[in-house]
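Below is how a single chain appears once it has passed through the pipeline. First comes the sequence as given, then the structure the pipeline wrote out for it. We keep one example in the README because the format questions we get most often are answered faster by looking than by reading.
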Amino acid sequence: MSSYLISNVSVVGAAPTDVLIRDGVVAAVGAGLDAPEATVVDGTGLVALPGLVDLHTHLREPGREDAETVESGSRAAALGGYTAVCAMANTSPVADTAGVVEQVWRLGREAGLVDVQPIGAVTVGLAGEHLAELGAMADSAARVRIFSDDGHCVADPRLMRRALEYVKAFDGIIAQHAEEPRLTEGAQMHEGEVSTRLGLTGWPAVAEEAIIARDVLLAEHVGSRLHVCHVSTAGSVEVLRQAKARGVRVTAEVTPHHLLLTDSRAETYDPVYKVNPPLRTAADIAALRAALVEGVIDIVATDHAPHAVEDKECEWAYARPGMLGLETALSIALDVLGPQWDLIAERMSRTPARIAGLEGHGLDPAPGVPANLTLVDPAARRTIEPAELASRSRNTPYARMTLPGRIVATFLRGEPTVLDGKALK
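Resulting structure:
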Protein backbone atom coordinates (compact mmCIF):
# COMPACT_ATOMS: atom_id res chain seq x y z
CA MET A 1 0.00 0.00 0.00
CA SER A 2 1.00 3.62 -0.50
CA SER A 3 2.49 5.88 2.13
CA TYR A 4 1.58 9.55 2.57
CA LEU A 5 3.10 12.23 4.75
CA ILE A 6 0.72 15.08 5.45
CA SER A 7 2.97 17.90 6.59
CA ASN A 8 2.23 20.89 8.79
CA VAL A 9 -1.48 20.12 9.23
CA SER A 10 -3.75 21.04 12.13
CA VAL A 11 -5.40 17.91 13.56
CA VAL A 12 -8.95 18.88 14.62
CA GLY A 13 -7.87 22.48 15.12
CA ALA A 14 -4.71 21.82 17.17
CA ALA A 15 -1.23 23.22 16.49
CA PRO A 16 0.28 22.20 13.12
CA THR A 17 1.99 18.81 13.04
CA ASP A 18 2.76 15.98 10.60
CA VAL A 19 0.66 12.87 9.98
CA LEU A 20 2.23 9.77 8.44
CA ILE A 21 -0.05 7.24 6.76
CA ARG A 22 1.33 3.81 6.01
CA ASP A 23 -0.37 0.48 5.20
CA GLY A 24 -3.84 1.91 5.64
CA VAL A 25 -3.35 3.27 9.15
CA VAL A 26 -1.93 6.37 10.78
CA ALA A 27 1.66 5.34 11.52
CA ALA A 28 2.74 8.45 13.42
CA VAL A 29 1.66 11.96 14.39
CA GLY A 30 4.27 14.55 15.36
CA ALA A 31 6.36 17.45 14.20
CA GLY A 32 9.29 16.86 11.87
CA LEU A 33 8.42 13.36 10.72
CA ASP A 34 10.72 11.92 8.06
CA ALA A 35 9.50 9.32 5.57
CA PRO A 36 11.49 9.39 2.30
CA GLU A 37 9.29 6.75 0.69
CA ALA A 38 6.06 8.67 1.35
CA THR A 39 4.21 10.97 -1.01
CA VAL A 40 4.11 14.39 0.64
CA VAL A 41 0.83 16.26 0.92
CA ASP A 42 1.30 19.87 2.00
CA GLY A 43 -1.12 20.47 4.86
CA THR A 44 -0.16 24.09 5.52
CA GLY A 45 -3.29 25.98 6.50
CA LEU A 46 -5.40 22.80 6.39
CA VAL A 47 -7.36 21.04 9.13
CA ALA A 48 -7.40 17.24 9.38
CA LEU A 49 -10.69 15.77 10.58
CA PRO A 50 -11.78 12.18 11.04
CA GLY A 51 -13.55 11.20 7.83
CA LEU A 52 -17.13 12.42 7.87
CA VAL A 53 -19.95 9.92 8.35
CA ASP A 54 -23.48 10.46 7.02
CA LEU A 55 -26.34 8.58 8.68
CA HIS A 56 -28.91 9.62 6.08
CA THR A 57 -28.12 9.34 2.35
CA HIS A 58 -30.34 8.44 -0.60
CA LEU A 59 -28.34 6.72 -3.32
CA ARG A 60 -31.41 5.75 -5.44
CA GLU A 61 -29.90 2.50 -6.73
CA PRO A 62 -31.52 0.12 -7.50
CA GLY A 63 -34.37 1.62 -9.47
CA ARG A 64 -33.67 5.31 -10.05
CA GLU A 65 -30.21 5.32 -11.53
CA ASP A 66 -31.25 8.34 -13.61
CA ALA A 67 -31.15 10.39 -10.39
CA GLU A 68 -28.16 8.77 -8.65
CA THR A 69 -26.17 5.57 -8.45
CA VAL A 70 -24.18 4.10 -5.62
CA GLU A 71 -21.04 5.07 -7.52
CA SER A 72 -22.03 8.67 -8.31
CA GLY A 73 -23.37 9.21 -4.80
CA SER A 74 -20.18 7.74 -3.35
CA ARG A 75 -18.12 10.14 -5.45
CA ALA A 76 -20.21 13.08 -4.20
CA ALA A 77 -19.70 11.85 -0.65
CA ALA A 78 -15.93 11.58 -1.01
CA LEU A 79 -15.77 15.08 -2.49
CA GLY A 80 -17.75 16.26 0.54
CA GLY A 81 -15.18 14.76 2.92
CA TYR A 82 -17.12 11.59 3.78
CA THR A 83 -15.61 8.16 4.27
CA ALA A 84 -18.85 6.37 5.16
CA VAL A 85 -22.53 6.85 4.32
CA CYS A 86 -25.67 5.01 5.37
CA ALA A 87 -27.94 4.40 2.36
CA MET A 88 -31.68 4.70 2.93
CA ALA A 89 -34.07 1.93 1.96
CA ASN A 90 -36.52 3.74 -0.34
CA THR A 91 -35.11 2.28 -3.54
CA SER A 92 -36.99 0.28 -6.19
CA PRO A 93 -37.20 -2.50 -5.21
CA VAL A 94 -37.27 -1.39 -1.60
CA ALA A 95 -34.34 -2.54 0.53
CA ASP A 96 -36.57 -4.74 2.67
CA THR A 97 -34.81 -8.07 2.07
CA ALA A 98 -31.33 -9.45 2.60
CA GLY A 99 -30.85 -9.67 -1.17
CA VAL A 100 -31.41 -5.98 -1.84
CA VAL A 101 -29.30 -4.68 1.07
CA GLU A 102 -26.47 -6.99 0.02
CA GLN A 103 -26.72 -5.64 -3.54
CA VAL A 104 -26.32 -2.05 -2.29
CA TRP A 105 -23.47 -3.08 0.03
CA ARG A 106 -21.60 -4.82 -2.80
CA LEU A 107 -22.09 -1.87 -5.16
CA GLY A 108 -20.51 0.33 -2.50
CA ARG A 109 -17.54 -1.97 -2.17
CA GLU A 110 -17.08 -2.05 -5.94
CA ALA A 111 -17.12 1.75 -6.14
CA GLY A 112 -14.48 1.89 -3.40
CA LEU A 113 -14.91 5.60 -2.66
CA VAL A 114 -16.65 5.43 0.71
CA ASP A 115 -17.98 2.65 2.90
CA VAL A 116 -21.66 2.27 2.01
CA GLN A 117 -23.70 0.82 4.87
CA PRO A 118 -27.28 -0.03 3.84
CA ILE A 119 -30.24 0.88 6.03
CA GLY A 120 -33.04 -1.68 5.84
CA ALA A 121 -36.75 -0.92 5.61
CA VAL A 122 -38.85 -1.36 8.75
CA THR A 123 -41.91 -2.54 6.83
CA VAL A 124 -42.44 -4.51 3.63
CA GLY A 125 -42.45 -2.10 0.68
CA LEU A 126 -42.47 0.86 3.11
CA ALA A 127 -46.22 0.26 3.28
CA GLY A 128 -46.44 0.39 7.07
CA GLU A 129 -48.44 -2.85 7.35
CA HIS A 130 -46.04 -5.75 8.02
CA LEU A 131 -42.51 -5.90 9.40
CA ALA A 132 -39.80 -6.50 6.83
CA GLU A 133 -37.14 -9.21 7.15
CA LEU A 134 -35.26 -7.39 9.90
CA GLY A 135 -33.44 -10.43 11.21
CA ALA A 136 -32.41 -11.65 7.76
CA MET A 137 -31.02 -8.21 6.89
CA ALA A 138 -29.16 -8.07 10.21
CA ASP A 139 -27.62 -11.50 9.52
CA SER A 140 -26.74 -10.72 5.89
CA ALA A 141 -23.29 -9.82 4.58
CA ALA A 142 -24.35 -6.15 4.91
CA ARG A 143 -24.96 -6.63 8.67
CA VAL A 144 -27.74 -4.05 8.78
CA ARG A 145 -28.23 -2.42 12.16
CA ILE A 146 -30.38 0.60 11.31
CA PHE A 147 -33.89 0.29 9.88
CA SER A 148 -36.04 3.10 8.52
CA ASP A 149 -39.07 3.69 6.31
CA ASP A 150 -37.73 7.20 5.67
CA GLY A 151 -40.04 9.10 3.37
CA HIS A 152 -42.85 7.36 5.23
CA CYS A 153 -43.67 7.34 8.92
CA VAL A 154 -44.22 4.08 10.76
CA ALA A 155 -47.54 5.50 11.85
CA ASP A 156 -49.09 2.41 13.47
CA PRO A 157 -48.00 2.45 17.14
CA ARG A 158 -48.38 -1.34 17.49
CA LEU A 159 -46.11 -1.94 14.52
CA MET A 160 -43.59 0.60 15.80
CA ARG A 161 -43.53 -1.13 19.17
CA ARG A 162 -42.98 -4.52 17.52
CA ALA A 163 -40.12 -3.12 15.45
CA LEU A 164 -38.44 -1.62 18.52
CA GLU A 165 -38.81 -4.92 20.37
CA TYR A 166 -37.44 -6.95 17.46
CA VAL A 167 -34.23 -4.97 16.91
CA LYS A 168 -33.47 -4.89 20.62
CA ALA A 169 -32.24 -8.49 20.30
CA PHE A 170 -29.20 -7.35 18.28
CA ASP A 171 -28.97 -3.75 19.57
CA GLY A 172 -30.43 -2.39 16.35
CA ILE A 173 -31.97 1.01 15.79
CA ILE A 174 -35.29 2.14 14.37
CA ALA A 175 -34.83 5.49 12.59
CA GLN A 176 -38.17 7.22 12.35
CA HIS A 177 -39.42 9.72 9.78
CA ALA A 178 -41.61 11.59 12.27
CA GLU A 179 -44.76 12.69 10.44
CA GLU A 180 -48.32 11.99 11.50
CA PRO A 181 -49.81 11.41 8.01
CA ARG A 182 -53.34 12.40 8.97
CA LEU A 183 -52.07 15.88 9.81
CA THR A 184 -50.05 16.37 6.60
CA GLU A 185 -52.40 15.17 3.87
CA GLY A 186 -51.82 17.36 0.82
CA ALA A 187 -49.19 19.42 2.65
CA GLN A 188 -46.84 21.48 0.49
CA MET A 189 -44.77 23.47 2.97
CA HIS A 190 -44.52 24.53 6.63
CA GLU A 191 -47.85 25.60 8.07
CA GLY A 192 -47.55 29.22 9.09
CA GLU A 193 -47.70 32.81 7.93
CA VAL A 194 -45.94 32.16 4.62
CA SER A 195 -48.11 29.17 3.65
CA THR A 196 -51.24 31.20 4.41
CA ARG A 197 -50.05 34.06 2.26
CA LEU A 198 -49.06 31.76 -0.61
CA GLY A 199 -52.22 29.67 -0.40
CA LEU A 200 -50.29 26.40 -0.01
CA THR A 201 -51.49 23.60 2.26
CA GLY A 202 -49.42 23.60 5.44
CA TRP A 203 -47.38 20.86 7.15
CA PRO A 204 -47.85 21.68 10.88
CA ALA A 205 -44.98 21.34 13.32
CA VAL A 206 -47.17 19.27 15.63
CA ALA A 207 -47.30 16.48 13.04
CA GLU A 208 -43.60 15.90 13.71
CA GLU A 209 -43.67 16.56 17.41
CA ALA A 210 -46.58 14.21 18.13
CA ILE A 211 -44.82 11.22 16.55
CA ILE A 212 -41.54 11.94 18.33
CA ALA A 213 -43.39 12.19 21.65
CA ARG A 214 -45.14 8.88 21.00
CA ASP A 215 -41.99 7.11 19.88
CA VAL A 216 -39.79 8.18 22.76
CA LEU A 217 -42.46 6.79 25.09
CA LEU A 218 -42.48 3.52 23.15
CA ALA A 219 -38.68 3.34 23.14
CA GLU A 220 -38.64 4.06 26.87
CA HIS A 221 -41.22 1.34 27.50
CA VAL A 222 -39.38 -1.24 25.40
CA GLY A 223 -35.87 -0.16 26.36
CA SER A 224 -34.79 -0.04 22.74
CA ARG A 225 -32.85 2.40 20.55
CA LEU A 226 -34.68 5.08 18.60
CA HIS A 227 -33.18 7.55 16.15
CA VAL A 228 -35.19 10.54 14.94
CA CYS A 229 -34.51 11.59 11.35
CA HIS A 230 -34.29 15.22 10.18
CA VAL A 231 -35.63 17.07 13.25
CA SER A 232 -37.03 20.39 12.09
CA THR A 233 -38.98 22.18 14.85
CA ALA A 234 -38.33 23.89 18.15
CA GLY A 235 -41.08 21.79 19.74
CA SER A 236 -39.31 18.59 18.69
CA VAL A 237 -36.16 19.82 20.42
CA GLU A 238 -38.06 20.18 23.69
CA VAL A 239 -39.53 16.67 23.42
CA LEU A 240 -36.04 15.26 22.81
CA ARG A 241 -34.52 17.25 25.66
CA GLN A 242 -37.07 15.86 28.11
CA ALA A 243 -36.63 12.31 26.81
CA LYS A 244 -32.86 12.43 27.14
CA ALA A 245 -33.15 13.81 30.66
CA ARG A 246 -35.16 10.67 31.52
CA GLY A 247 -32.50 8.42 30.01
CA VAL A 248 -34.45 7.31 26.94
CA ARG A 249 -32.14 5.70 24.36
CA VAL A 250 -32.90 8.25 21.67
CA THR A 251 -30.61 10.05 19.25
CA ALA A 252 -31.52 12.68 16.66
CA GLU A 253 -30.21 14.36 13.55
CA VAL A 254 -30.64 17.71 11.84
CA THR A 255 -29.95 18.45 8.18
CA PRO A 256 -27.80 21.29 6.88
CA HIS A 257 -30.77 22.86 5.09
CA HIS A 258 -32.85 22.94 8.28
CA LEU A 259 -29.97 24.79 9.95
CA LEU A 260 -29.81 27.49 7.28
CA LEU A 261 -32.91 27.92 5.10
CA THR A 262 -36.34 29.17 6.18
CA ASP A 263 -39.83 28.68 4.78
CA SER A 264 -39.60 32.12 3.16
CA ARG A 265 -37.68 30.42 0.32
CA ALA A 266 -41.02 29.02 -0.86
CA GLU A 267 -42.07 32.54 -1.87
CA THR A 268 -40.16 31.99 -5.12
CA TYR A 269 -42.22 28.84 -5.86
CA ASP A 270 -38.91 27.24 -6.87
CA PRO A 271 -39.38 23.49 -6.22
CA VAL A 272 -35.71 23.12 -5.29
CA TYR A 273 -36.82 24.36 -1.85
CA LYS A 274 -39.51 21.71 -1.47
CA VAL A 275 -38.38 19.15 1.10
CA ASN A 276 -39.88 16.80 3.67
CA PRO A 277 -40.02 17.81 6.47
CA PRO A 278 -40.39 21.31 5.09
CA LEU A 279 -38.18 24.30 5.71
CA ARG A 280 -39.36 25.94 8.93
CA THR A 281 -39.11 29.38 10.55
CA ALA A 282 -36.18 31.43 11.79
CA ALA A 283 -37.21 30.60 15.38
CA ASP A 284 -37.03 26.89 14.57
CA ILE A 285 -33.58 27.33 13.03
CA ALA A 286 -32.33 29.12 16.15
CA ALA A 287 -33.62 26.28 18.35
CA LEU A 288 -32.06 23.62 16.11
CA ARG A 289 -28.67 25.34 16.10
CA ALA A 290 -28.68 25.68 19.88
CA ALA A 291 -29.74 22.04 20.30
CA LEU A 292 -26.93 20.88 18.00
CA VAL A 293 -24.32 22.72 20.07
CA GLU A 294 -25.88 21.49 23.31
CA GLY A 295 -26.04 17.88 22.15
CA VAL A 296 -29.80 17.48 22.37
CA ILE A 297 -29.48 16.92 18.63
CA ASP A 298 -26.62 14.48 18.25
CA ILE A 299 -25.52 14.77 14.63
CA VAL A 300 -25.71 16.55 11.30
CA ALA A 301 -27.03 14.23 8.57
CA THR A 302 -27.42 15.35 4.98
CA ASP A 303 -30.66 13.65 3.84
CA HIS A 304 -28.98 13.82 0.42
CA ALA A 305 -31.98 13.36 -1.90
CA PRO A 306 -31.13 13.54 -5.61
CA HIS A 307 -33.97 13.81 -8.13
CA ALA A 308 -34.08 13.68 -11.89
CA VAL A 309 -34.81 16.92 -13.74
CA GLU A 310 -38.41 16.04 -14.54
CA ASP A 311 -39.14 15.39 -10.85
CA LYS A 312 -37.93 18.82 -9.74
CA GLU A 313 -38.24 21.28 -12.61
CA CYS A 314 -42.03 21.31 -12.64
CA GLU A 315 -44.89 22.97 -10.76
CA TRP A 316 -44.37 23.12 -7.00
CA ALA A 317 -47.34 20.85 -6.23
CA TYR A 318 -46.03 18.06 -8.46
CA ALA A 319 -42.34 18.30 -7.53
CA ARG A 320 -40.81 15.58 -5.40
CA PRO A 321 -39.38 16.73 -2.06
CA GLY A 322 -35.66 16.61 -1.43
CA MET A 323 -32.31 18.36 -1.83
CA LEU A 324 -28.70 17.45 -2.53
CA GLY A 325 -26.44 17.65 0.50
CA LEU A 326 -23.27 15.56 0.46
CA GLU A 327 -20.93 17.99 -1.30
CA THR A 328 -21.99 21.06 0.69
CA ALA A 329 -22.69 19.75 4.22
CA LEU A 330 -19.35 20.65 5.78
CA SER A 331 -19.49 24.15 4.28
CA ILE A 332 -22.95 24.69 5.79
CA ALA A 333 -21.68 23.43 9.16
CA LEU A 334 -18.79 25.90 8.97
CA ASP A 335 -21.17 28.69 8.00
CA VAL A 336 -23.52 27.90 10.89
CA LEU A 337 -21.09 26.87 13.63
CA GLY A 338 -17.89 28.62 12.63
CA PRO A 339 -14.50 26.87 12.96
CA GLN A 340 -15.45 24.86 16.05
CA TRP A 341 -13.48 21.88 14.79
CA ASP A 342 -13.96 19.57 17.75
CA LEU A 343 -17.72 20.16 17.67
CA ILE A 344 -17.84 19.60 13.91
CA ALA A 345 -15.83 16.37 14.28
CA GLU A 346 -18.18 15.21 17.03
CA ARG A 347 -21.42 15.98 15.18
CA MET A 348 -20.33 14.92 11.69
CA SER A 349 -17.96 12.00 12.32
CA ARG A 350 -17.47 10.57 15.79
CA THR A 351 -21.07 10.43 16.94
CA PRO A 352 -22.67 9.23 13.68
CA ALA A 353 -20.01 6.51 13.42
CA ARG A 354 -20.73 5.47 17.00
CA ILE A 355 -24.51 5.42 16.45
CA ALA A 356 -24.17 3.30 13.31
CA GLY A 357 -21.49 1.05 14.80
CA LEU A 358 -19.10 1.70 11.92
CA GLU A 359 -15.81 0.25 13.06
CA GLY A 360 -12.73 2.22 12.02
CA HIS A 361 -14.68 5.42 11.33
CA GLY A 362 -15.13 8.50 13.48
CA LEU A 363 -11.65 8.26 14.99
CA ASP A 364 -9.30 11.23 15.22
CA PRO A 365 -5.95 10.76 13.44
CA ALA A 366 -3.67 8.99 15.92
CA PRO A 367 -1.05 6.20 15.71
CA GLY A 368 -2.63 2.84 14.91
CA VAL A 369 -5.99 4.28 13.86
CA PRO A 370 -7.37 3.42 10.39
CA ALA A 371 -6.51 6.34 8.11
CA ASN A 372 -10.05 7.52 7.36
CA LEU A 373 -9.69 11.28 7.31
CA THR A 374 -10.39 14.45 5.40
CA LEU A 375 -8.37 17.62 4.88
CA VAL A 376 -10.22 20.92 4.85
CA ASP A 377 -9.09 24.37 3.76
CA PRO A 378 -11.08 26.65 6.11
CA ALA A 379 -9.86 29.84 4.43
CA ALA A 380 -11.20 28.91 1.01
CA ARG A 381 -14.57 30.06 -0.24
CA ARG A 382 -16.35 28.52 -3.19
CA THR A 383 -19.39 29.34 -5.24
CA ILE A 384 -21.67 26.35 -5.75
CA GLU A 385 -22.26 25.59 -9.43
CA PRO A 386 -24.77 22.74 -9.91
CA ALA A 387 -23.15 21.59 -13.15
CA GLU A 388 -19.88 20.99 -11.29
CA LEU A 389 -21.36 18.66 -8.69
CA ALA A 390 -20.57 14.95 -8.86
CA SER A 391 -24.15 13.88 -8.25
CA ARG A 392 -26.21 12.87 -11.28
CA SER A 393 -28.85 15.34 -10.11
CA ARG A 394 -28.73 19.11 -9.84
CA ASN A 395 -31.33 19.92 -7.16
CA THR A 396 -29.09 21.88 -4.82
CA PRO A 397 -30.66 24.74 -2.86
CA TYR A 398 -27.24 26.40 -2.64
CA ALA A 399 -26.77 27.12 -6.34
CA ARG A 400 -24.56 30.19 -6.85
CA MET A 401 -24.20 30.69 -3.10
CA THR A 402 -20.65 31.34 -1.86
CA LEU A 403 -19.85 29.08 1.08
CA PRO A 404 -16.82 28.70 3.37
CA GLY A 405 -14.42 25.77 3.31
CA ARG A 406 -13.11 23.41 0.66
CA ILE A 407 -12.36 19.70 0.87
CA VAL A 408 -8.78 19.29 -0.32
CA ALA A 409 -8.33 15.55 0.27
CA THR A 410 -10.18 12.52 1.57
CA PHE A 411 -8.49 9.26 2.58
CA LEU A 412 -10.26 5.92 2.93
CA ARG A 413 -8.13 3.40 4.83
CA GLY A 414 -4.98 5.20 3.78
CA GLU A 415 -5.77 5.56 0.09
CA PRO A 416 -6.81 8.95 -1.29
CA THR A 417 -10.24 9.10 -2.89
CA VAL A 418 -9.88 12.88 -3.34
CA LEU A 419 -6.69 14.91 -3.82
CA ASP A 420 -6.44 18.62 -4.55
CA GLY A 421 -10.21 18.76 -4.48
CA LYS A 422 -10.64 16.24 -7.30
CA ALA A 423 -12.00 12.69 -7.12
CA LEU A 424 -9.45 10.07 -8.13
CA LYS A 425 -12.01 7.56 -9.43
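Residues 205-222 form the longest helix (18 residues).

See the next section for the split statistics.
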